[in-house]
Design a protein that fits this description.
hydrolase; Nucleotidyltransferase, domain 5; RNaseH_sf; nucleic acid binding; C2H2-type domain-containing protein; nuclease; two-stranded antiparallel sheet
C-alpha cells in the first residue's frame, strides 16, 4: 500500500481566489470578510472547515445547540439566513461596499494594471511640466501641480474613484462645474460638490449634466459650493498623494481642468480598449461607461435620463474597475466578443462606403449626344459673323 506524504509546511490558501496565508486563522478571517466559502467558517473560533457538514459537527460539539425559541401568540418565528454584503443605493442602483476579493489582492492588481507613462501621454494625460504648442494649453500646464509625496504624518487614500462634469467658459475653454471623489475600497464619499467657475459660463451644457444656473445659485446661497477649480483641486489633494491610484472613465480632461498631474491612473476606457486591441496597437474604438456597465455588469445607469451625474459615474467606474480586476478571465471573454463585433461593424461600414461610391459612379449622367451638352461657337454666333479663314500671320 502506497503511503501519501502530506506536506505539513504547506501554507493555507483560499480555494476561491488562491490567496496564500500564513495561518489557518488568517485564512478563515479572509473567507469571512470576502465571503469566500464563509459558510464553512466558524465565527467564534475563526476557523475554516472543509465542508458545511464538518462545520455543523464542530458547532454541535464545541458550542452546543442554540437554545430553542418559543414564540408568543403574536410573534412569528423566523429563521435567520446569511445576508449578502451590505450595499448602498444611488438612483435605483446597487453598488457594492465590500470588494469581491481580499483588499490586498485587489490593491496589488490595481497597481499592476495602472497604465504606462507612454500610454497616458498618447491618451492626452498631462504628466509633469510639458510644453504645449497651444498657448492656452500651455497656460493650463503651467498651473498644473502634482500631489504630495507619501508621508506617515499625513496618510492618504490608497485609491479613489473620480469624476467631474464641465461647462464652457470664454475662449472656448471648459471648467469644472461638478466633482465627486469616493474611496475605491470602502465606497465612502470624500467629495461631492458643485463648483462655480470664476470665469463667466457661456455654455452650460445642461443637456449633458442637468446643471442649470439656478442649481448653482441655490447651492451658493446654502454655502454648499466650491468656488473655482483651485478650490476643487485643494479638496482633492486632501485625499491623495503620488502613490494614490486614481480610477475613472477617461480622466484626461478631469485632471487637466483640475490642473493635476498624476501618473498612477487606472482608466477603465483604456483598460477595456487594451483588452480588446492589445497594449501595443492603436485603439480602433473606446467603449463608453454606459455601454461597459451594460455589457460587463448588466447595470443600467442614467435610467430615465441621459444626463450625467458625477457621483453616479464615479461609482459606476468603480464597479467596472472592480469587475475587471476580480474577473480577468471574463474580461478576456468579453474582449474577444467585443473585438469580433467591432470588426464586423467595421466591415459593414466599409461595405456601405463602397456601395455609396459605386452608386455615385453609376448615377452620373450619361450623355447620348455630345452636341446637346457641349456649347459650340455656332450656338452663340450667327453664321454670317463666323470667320471664314484664320487671320494671316504676316
Amino acid at each position: 500500500m502506497v503511503k501519501v506524504k502530506v506536506n505539513k509546511n504547506r501554507k493555507p490558501c483560499c480555494k476561491v481566489c488562491s490567496a496564500p496565508f500564513k495561518t489557518h486563522s488568517q485564512l478563515a478571517k479572509h473567507c469571512l470578510d470576502a465571503d469566500h466559502e464563509g459558510n464553512q467558517c466558524c465565527e467564534h473560533c475563526i476557523r475554516w472547515f472543509c465542508s458545511t457538514e464538518a462545520l455543523s459537527q464542530h458547532n454541535e460539539a464545541k458550542h452546543g445547540k442554540l437554545p430553542a425559541v418559543v414564540p408568543s401568540q403574536n410573534q412569528v418565528l423566523t429563521v435567520s439566513t446569511p445576508q449578502p454584503p451590505q450595499q448602498f443605493h444611488f438612483q435605483d442602483q446597487n453598488y457594492k461596499r465590500l470588494p469581491l476579493l481580499d483588499m490586498g489582492i485587489i490593491y496589488d492588481r490595481l497597481i499592476l494594471k495602472c497604465h504606462s507613462s507612454e500610454r497616458l501621454r498618447k491618451e492626452g494625460y498631462v504628466l509633469g511640466k510639458e510644453t504645449r504648442e497651444n498657448a492656452r494649453q500651455a497656460a493650463i500646464t503651467k498651473q498644473t501641480v502634482m500631489a504630495s509625496y507619501p508621508s506617515s504624518l499625513e496618510p492618504k487614500r490608497k485609491a479613489i474613484a473620480l469624476d467631474c462634469e464641465m461647462a464652457g467658459v470664454v475662449n472656448g475653454e471648459s471648467e469644472i462645474i461638478s466633482i465627486c471623489a469616493i474611496d475605491f475600497f470602502t465606497g465612502e464619499v470624500l467629495i461631492n460638490s458643485l463648483v462655480k467657475p470664476l470665469e463667466p459660463i457661456i455654455d452650460w451644457r445642461t443637456n449633458i449634466h442637468g446643471i442649470r444656473p439656478a442649481t448653482l445659485a441655490i447651492a451658493a446661497s446654502q454655502g454648499q459650493i466650491l468656488y473655482g477649480w483651485e478650490a476643487a483641486r485643494q479638496e482633492l489633494l486632501k485625499h491623495i498623494n503620488t502613490e494614490t491610484a486614481m480610477v475613472g472613465q477617461s480622466l484626461q480632461q478631469d485632471l487637466r481642468r483640475l490642473r493635476v498631474s498624476h501618473e498612477k491612473i487606472f482608466d477603465t476606457a483604456i483598460l477595456t480598449a487594451e483588452a480588446v486591441f492589445g497594449t501595443g496597437t492603436p485603439f480602433g474604438h473606446r467603449w463608453s461607461l454606459q455601454s461597459l456597465c451594460g455589457d460587463l455588469l448588466k447595470l443600467s445607469i442614467r435610467q430615465g435620463s441621459d444626463t450625467h451625474d458625477a457621483m453616479e459615474d464615479a461609482m459606476a467606474a468603480r464597479e467596472v474597475a472592480l469587475w475587471c480586476i476580480c474577473y480577468p478571465d471574463k474580461l478576456k471573454q468579453w474582449a474577444k466578443r467585443a473585438r469580433k463585433k467591432h470588426m464586423a461593424e467595421k466591415a459593414k461600414r466599409a461595405e456601405r462606403r463602397r456601395n455609396k461610391r459605386r452608386n455615385m459612379y453609376y448615377s452620373a449622367p450619361v450623355l447620348d449626344d455630345e452636341d446637346d451638352e457641349i456649347l459650340r461657337w455656332e450656338d452663340v454666333i450667327e453664321w454670317e459673323m463666323w470667320p471664314k479663314s484664320p487671320p494671316s500671320s504676316d
